[in-house]
Amino acid sequence: MNTVIQRILGLAAPAFSDSGRPVNRVPVEQIRESLLALLHDCRDMRTQRLIYKVNVAKTPADLWLLRSDLHQCIAQTHSQSEAAERINSLIEVFEGWLPAGQLLRI
Fold first, then answer.
1. Does the predicted TM-score (pTM) go above 0.85?
2. Fewer Cβ atoms within 10 A, N terminus or C terminus of the chain?
């Protein structure tokens, strides 16, 4: 039963690897911290709402789906190229949590 709960929360999700090698996945809390670090210099109300969404996301897949919101917040403060660069830097923290085909650069 414990494994079922962990799988629902994304803590025991199967590791994805194209090569068949074991995958060392980054812990979910570290993924969350990586997303929040991208917003370190964004201070508007939209960013505050996004920080809340990042903090309540349950799984790495939920966090991955917030990339568009991250892009909007960063682009509003800086530029689209800066936003794309920051978001593309996240790909490695999601490796093993999502299929490689979903880990696309912006």
1. no
2. N
Q: What is the pLDDT of residues 89-106, one digit of tens each?
A: 999 999 999 999 999 999
- Cα 86 → chain centroid: 12
Gap between the Cα atoms of 58 and 55, Å rounded: 8
Measured distance CA(106)–CA(103) in Å, rounded: 10
- SS in 3 state form for 21-90? CCCCCCCHHHHHHHHHHHCCCCCCHHHHHHHHHHHHCCCHHHHHCCHHHHHHHHHHHCCHHHHHHHHHCC
User: What pLDDT is recorded for position 31?
Assistant: 98
Q: At what angle do helices 67-77 and 45-56 cross, to 10 degrees?
A: 150
Residue 85: count other Cβ atoms within 10 Å of its Cβ. 15
